[in-house]
Amino acid sequence: MNGMRLQVLTMILGGFLAGCGDDLGTPVDAAQGASPDAGTAIDSAGAIDSAGAGSVVFYDVVATFREPMTQPNDTIFTGSLTFDSTSKSVTNLTGTLTQSMTKVNGVYGGPMTTVTLANQLSSVPTVLDGASGLLVTTFALTTTDTFSGGGFVPGGTEYYGLLESTPNNHNAYAMIFVNTTDPTAAPTQAQVDKLAYADCTAGGMMMSSCMTGTSVGGYGVKGTMGGYPLSLVITRR
């Protein structure tokens, strides 16, 4: 009788293991990375990441503003940006702005002091000379308020706080044009004319006026000391 019971139990156990073999094997295969579904997910994620990374390109920027009254010093913005060729957008425009009023031994000269501009707060679509692009502006502070009355519209001169009866907030900015078809394309004069800068920090102040750079062609007036945009060079890294 005992022999018969053992034989029956053995048959039952064998049948149970045979029925569960596939289920028990699947976790082992998955742990080894052999699951077809898991492999597909990994491949898909890799393809998406690769495509996304391929559309983002880094560029270096140099924008020069001629300063007739502070030669040999000019105001120069030196920085970098990130361009997404798929969305045609610019992010992370950052850099430094030289202060052309820097003096060495009582005369204009270098090395010039600089202002860090690390806050891209404006990107405005525009078409200049038939080219689609963006006027992108980066600031010293985390606010666009630069001129008296608020805001940063090129052509302003008085520091933010004068009309507001508050202390100068010491903001500064640089505005450049980025051609969204080809950021490295040589800019036309009309595109260069839309560059602008303002420096209302301590090293850029003349009484209540900020150092600025604008063009008659772009904004109807030159900067506070006659400064105007001279050139823009954008190069791919």
Spell out the blueprint of helices and strands.
Blueprint: H1 2-31, H2 36-54, E1 56-66, E2 75-84, E3 89-98, E4 103-104, E5 107-108, E6 114-117, E7 119-128, E8 131-139, E9 172-179, H3 189-192, E10 196-199, E11 205-206, E12 209-213, H4 216-219, E13 228-236
Antiparallel strand pairs: 1-2, 1-13, 2-3, 3-6, 4-5, 7-8, 8-9, 9-10, 10-12, 11-12
TL;DR of this structure?
By secondary structure, the chain is an alpha+beta fold.
How would you sum up this structure, described in words?
With 237 residues, this protein is an alpha+beta fold. The protein folds into two domains: 2-49; 55-236, no CATH class. Helix content is 24%, strand content 36%. It is built from four helices and 13 strands. The strands form three sheets. It has a six-stranded antiparallel beta sheet with strand order 7-8-9-10-12-11. A hairpin with a 2-residue loop joins strand 7 and strand 8 (131-139). The longest helix is centred in the first third of the chain and has 30 residues, at 2-31. The radius of gyration is 31 Å and the shape is globular. It starts with a helix and ends with a strand. Residues 1-52 have low confidence and may be disordered.
